[in-house]
Amino acid sequence: MAEGMAFEEAGGAVCKDESPEPEEGDDANTDYIYHDIESRFCTKLPKALHNRDNILQSKDSCKDSHRDSKAASGPLKKRKHRSKRKHRDAAGGFRSELGPYAHEKQMPSWLRNMLEEGAKVTVSNQIQPDGTLHRVEFVANETSHLIPVLAQLCELDETVEQAFLCSPAARHVFKMPKEGGFCGYRNIQMLVSYIQDTRADGYEQFPGRLPTILRLQDLIEQAWDLGFNSTAQIETGGIKGTRKYIGTSEAQALFLSLGIECTAGAFGTTQDTSAHDALLDDILAYFHQGCSTNNQRITQTELPPVYLQHEGHSLTIVGFEIHKSGSANLLVFDPMFKTSPAIERLIGNNHIRSQDPGRVIKAYRRGPGYLQKHKEFEILK
C-alpha cells in the first residue's frame, strides 16, 4: 500500500538560514528524519489570512446565518469594510497569501490532467475473518486505519499520561508528487473521509471516492455563488482551475453550502494567554466533550477530526496528548509528509510492540516548540 505524508509548499515565505527546500516532487517520495521536523516549518504569511471574512469567532456556530446578505450580522458583515485581504485590482496588485501563482488564470494542462486522473488506485481481494473474500481499494495518497496505530503507540509511550483521538474513520490524505501547494484541499478531503466513512450528516454529497481538488474548487465556487463567504470570490478573483492557495474561509463555505454544520474558531495572542495555549485549551475541551468519562488513559472517541490553519500551512488535528511532565501536544495528519515505513508496517496490527514508541509517533506530534512559533490559529470543526 503506497501511503504517506507529503510536503506542502507554504505561501508568501522565504525561510532564511535553513537547509534548502527539496525540489518539487522529491519530497513526496522521501522518508524524512522526523526529529528535525520542526526545523522544516519556517513560513510567513500576511496577517490578512487570519481575518478572512472575520467570521472565525471562537465557539460561534457557523450555520446559515453566515451567508452574506443584508440579514448577515456581526463580524461577517463588518468584514466587508475592514478587509486587509489584498486582491487583484486595476494596477495588478494581489494577495501574497494566494501563493506564487496568484496571477495565474489557469494551471498547466499537465497538472490539471494529473489532478483529474487522481492518485493510482489498486484493488485486491482480502480474506475476512468469516472466510469470505472482500474487495478492497487502495488509493496511493491515502492512509486508512492509522488512528488505531497512534492510539496503541500512545499506550506504549510511558511519558503519556492521557491521550484522546478522533474517530478511526479519519483517513490521512497527502499530496501527490509535483502537484504543488494544495494543502487546504487535502485537509478538506480528510474531513470528507470522516463524513463518508461514518455516514455523517451530508455524506450523500460525496458519493464514491473522495472529491478531487478540481471538484472541491467547483464546490467552493458554488458556495460563493450561493452567498457563503462570498467576499473571498472577489478578493481572490476566483480559484477554479488555478493553483491559488485556500484556507479556512473556503473550507467553511464549502461545508455550509452543502448543509454540513461546522463551528469555526480563531485564536490570537493576548495579554493573558498565548495563541497556542488558547488553541490547546480549546482542543482539549473538544475531546473532553466526546468522552463519557475522562478516567481512561487512552480514549479513542467518535469525534470528527479538526481543520487547523496557521501561518503558511494547514493540518488536520486527530488527537491530543497530555504528558506526565505537564506538557501537551496535538496529534495531526500533515499533508506534507509520507507515512514512514515504520508506521506503515504497524497498520492492521492489534498488538503493536515498540522499544521506542515516542520516536515512532513523533512525526504526528505538534507541541509547544512548534506551535509557539505562530501568533494566530484558525480551526474548523
Automatic annotation (TrEMBL):
Domain of life of the native organism: Eukaryota
Bias (Low complexity) ranges: 1-13
Alphabetically ordered keywords of this record: Hydrolase
Pfam families: Peptidase_C78
Gene Ontology MF term list: hydrolase activity
Comp. bias intervals (Basic and acidic residues): 60-70
Keyword Kinase: no
Region (Disordered): 1-30, 58-97
Biased composition (Acidic residues): 20-29
InterPro entries linked: UFSP1/2_DUB_cat
Alphabetized Gene3D superfamilies for the sequence: 3.90.70.130
Domain UFSP1/2/DUB catalytic: 161-380
Basic residues composition-biased segments: 76-88
Protein known as: UFSP1/2/DUB catalytic domain-containing protein
Record organism: [Emmonsia] crescens
